[in-house]
Amino acid sequence: MNQRGVATTNGGSGSGSVGVRIQQSRRLPDFLQSVNLKYVKLGYHYLISNLLTLCFIPAIAALSIQVSQMNLDDLRQLWLHLQYNLVSIIICSAILVFGLTVYIMTRPRPVYLVDYSCYRPPDHLKAPYGRFLEHSRLTGDFDESSLEFQRKILERSGLGEETYVPKAMHSIPPTPSMAAAREEAEEVMFGALDTLLRNTNVSPKDIGILVVNCSLFNPTPSLSAMIVNKYKLRGNIRSFHLGGMGCSAGVIAVDLAKDLLQVHRNTYAVVVSTENITQNWYFGNSKSMLIPNCLFRVGGSAVLLSNKSNDRRRAKYKLIHVVRTHRGADDKAFRCVYQEQDDAGKIGVSLSKDLMAIAGGALKTNITTLGPLVLPISEQLLFFTTLVVKKLFNASVKPYIPDFKLAFDHFCIHAGGRAVIDELEKNLQLLPIHVEASRMTLHRFGNTSSSSIWYELAYIEAKGRIRNRNRIWQIAFGSGFKCNSAVWQALRNVKPSSNGPWEDCIDKYPMKISS
C-alpha cells in the first residue's frame, strides 16, 4: 500500500506545483478539516445498543448499597411488611426474573483469544535487496526503468534485508505454478497451525469453526478444505474461506468467527490469515503494479478463539469491539487496489495514486465510529461539543481530534508500507513507541498482508510490554476499500508463546531505519 516513489519528477515550468499536488494526493487527509456527523451517530448507536446492560448494572449497585446500610430492625420491618403484601412480592419477583432473563438472553457471549502463532519461514527463503534485484534482472521481464524503480522503492520501503519470498521466486526463471502456490500455502498455514496446536494442547477434533482468509489464491478445493484434510477435522465443522478481501481480511475473519461463537456454544474457532505470492508476482513494467513485488512477503498467522468460560483463565485476551468500514460504494475507493491486466496482458495488482487519500477517508470514518465505544467521557464531550459548534455556529472551527492514547495502551497498525505508518503516526498524534511494532514488523518481515497485525502483537509481547487490562488496537486497511479495527483487552501480564516469530532476534530491535 506504500505509494512513495510512484511519481516521477517532470522538468520544465510548473513541475514544482505538479509535484506538490502529487505528493498531497498521496498523503492522508487532515482529520481536523472534516468529520462526518453520521459516523459519530453510528458510534453512539453501538453504545446505546448496550443500554440495558449499562442501566441494569448501576441499578444493582444502588440496590446493593441500600441493602448494605440496613440494620436488623430494618430487615424485620421489611419482612413484616412483605408478609401482608403477597401481590407486591409476586409482581416484584416477576419483574426481577423477567429482567434477569432478558439480560442473560441478550448479552453477547465473551470471546477469548487463547493463543496465536505467526509463521517463521526458513532462512533459505530470505531475499536481501541485492539478491532480489539480481533475480529481477535475470528473469528478463523487466526493462531498465522498471529495475531502477524497484530499487528506489526498496530503499524507501522500510523493509530490511531479512524478509522472505516464496521458493518459486528463488528459481531462475521463476516457477509460479499451481503446485508451487499450493506448496507455499501449505507451508505457511500448516506451519502456523502446528505451532498453535502444540502451544495450546488443543485437539483438532475440538475445533468447531474454521475461517481462512487469503485474497489472491483461491484454489479448488479451498484452503479451508486443505486444513480440514490435513488435520482430519470433524465432519460438522463450520468452515469458511474468505477471498479477495485484502489486507484487512484478518479482522473480518475474526469478526465472522466472533459472530459464529455467539451461536455455537462451548467450542473453539480457528482463524488462519495469509497471502499467497507465488502466482501473484507481477512480471511486467507498469509502475503501479510493481510496488506489491517490492513490499509483499511470505507470512501467515493462526489464532485460537474460544467461548468456553473455563478458557478465561488461560486466555491471553478478550475481544472487546470490532468496527468495520467499507467504502466500496465509491468508484475511486473500489478501484484504488485493483487486480487487472496491463497493456501487455500481464496480470498484477494496480495501486492508485489516490490510495493514501482514500485510506485516510476510510480511517476517519472508522475511528469516528469507534470513538464513542472506547474513549473516556472527557474526550467524547470535547469532541462532540466542537463538532456541534462547527455544524451549527461556526464552520471554520476545527473539530477536536480525540486522543486515542487515552483509550489504548498499544497499537498494531497494518504494516502496509512506511508511508502508511508515517501518516497514521502524524494524524493520530502517536509517539514513536506506539508505531514501533509496526515499523519493526515491516523491517523484519515486510508486508505480510492480513497477518501483519499479529506479527506486531507478537513483537509487543516479546518486549514484555503487555500488562493486565491493557487495551490493544489492531487496525488494518484492504482492497474494496476497507478499514477495520479490532480492540482486545489483556486478561493478564502476557508473555510470548513458544516458537514466536521474534524469539531469536527481539534483542536486536528496535533498530534505526534509514530514511
TrEMBL record:
GO terms for molecular function: fatty acid elongase activity. Residues 409-489 form the Beta-ketoacyl-[acyl-carrier-protein] synthase III C-terminal domain. It comes from the Eukaryota. It catalyses: a very-long-chain acyl-CoA + malonyl-CoA + H(+) = a very-long-chain 3-oxoacyl-CoA + CO2 + CoA. Its EC number is 2.3.1.-. Its main location: membrane. It is found in: Membrane. It is an enzyme of class 2 (transferase). Pfam families: ACP_syn_III_C, FAE1_CUT1_RppA. Residues 103-392 form the FAE domain. Pathway: Lipid metabolism; fatty acid biosynthesis. InterPro entries: 3-ktacl-CoA_syn, ACP_syn_III_C, FAE1_typ3_polyketide_synth, Thiolase-like. GO terms for cellular component: membrane. One of its GO terms (biological process) is fatty acid biosynthetic process. Keywords: Acyltransferase, Membrane, Transferase, Transmembrane, Transmembrane helix. The active site is at C247, H326, H410, H414, H443, N447. The chain crosses the membrane at residues 44-65, 86-105. Belongs to the thiolase-like superfamily. Chalcone/stilbene synthases family. This is 3-ketoacyl-CoA synthase. The gene is KCS35.
